[in-house]
Amino acid sequence: MPQTIDSIDRFFLTLFNGSHSMFLDEFALLFTNTVAWVPLFIALIILVVKNNEKTSQVMLLIGAVALGFLLSDGLADGIVKPLVGRLRPVNDPSMASVVNVVNGYHPSGYSFFSAHAANTFALAMLLTLIIRNTTFSTFMFLWAVGNCWTRLYLGAHYMSDIVVGIIWGCCAGAIAYAVYRRLYYKVSPRLHFISSQYTRSGYSLADIDMVLSVLVITVVVLIMLSCLWAR
């Protein structure tokens, strides 16, 4: 089984890692940078604040997000990575002939499992369960998948790192939601919205469109910067 997993990891690594495209090199480096997504995070905070009337509701949701990150990132970076000690492909001398190093990118830390995958899928899962809008969920999960692609492209992780990160991220998001839901009805009435302007959990579709616009605009900006810097 370990040899089979190793073979699968090597196959997908050679499939996704690098492309000799200066544009994709720059795009992957920009996309994987957390700073690039600050506008999206601000838009999500605005969405939460505008669609929750009480301070206790806002703080509860922020606490749920923090719990999701604590579970996903805490287990990955705080416990599993140091215990397993698996070198990242790009930092493993035995993989030097296989891995394409993108613009000298050598992230620190260990490989198993991917905190990027866990964190982004935890956030996507938690907000999907809370907001209950198909379009919003689709965009958030595509954003999470995009982050996973960058980790393979940059040689920061193997496919098994990504898969385990996705699974645990979804679990962490679901656990955080279960805690959120249990506490939410202690500070809020049980309401079910039926409206063409709101989701059934009470989130404005116009505010959701604002968040999605920020996400799309951010991707467009990253593409433009990648084209510019790839010259």
From TrEMBL:
<feature type="transmembrane region" description="Helical">
    <location>
        <begin position="210"/>
        <end position="230"/>
    </location>
</feature>
<feature type="transmembrane region" description="Helical">
    <location>
        <begin position="58"/>
        <end position="76"/>
    </location>
</feature>
<keyword id="KW-0472">Membrane</keyword>
<dbReference type="Pfam" id="PF01569">
    <property type="entry name" value="PAP2"/>
</dbReference>
<dbReference type="InterPro" id="IPR036938">
    <property type="entry name" value="PAP2/HPO_sf"/>
</dbReference>
<protein>
    <submittedName>
        <fullName>Lipid A 4'-phosphatase</fullName>
    </submittedName>
</protein>
<feature type="domain" description="Phosphatidic acid phosphatase type 2/haloperoxidase">
    <location>
        <begin position="62"/>
        <end position="177"/>
    </location>
</feature>
<feature type="transmembrane region" description="Helical">
    <location>
        <begin position="158"/>
        <end position="180"/>
    </location>
</feature>
<keyword id="KW-0812">Transmembrane</keyword>
<feature type="transmembrane region" description="Helical">
    <location>
        <begin position="27"/>
        <end position="49"/>
    </location>
</feature>
<dbReference type="InterPro" id="IPR000326">
    <property type="entry name" value="PAP2/HPO"/>
</dbReference>
<feature type="transmembrane region" description="Helical">
    <location>
        <begin position="121"/>
        <end position="146"/>
    </location>
</feature>
<keyword id="KW-1133">Transmembrane helix</keyword>
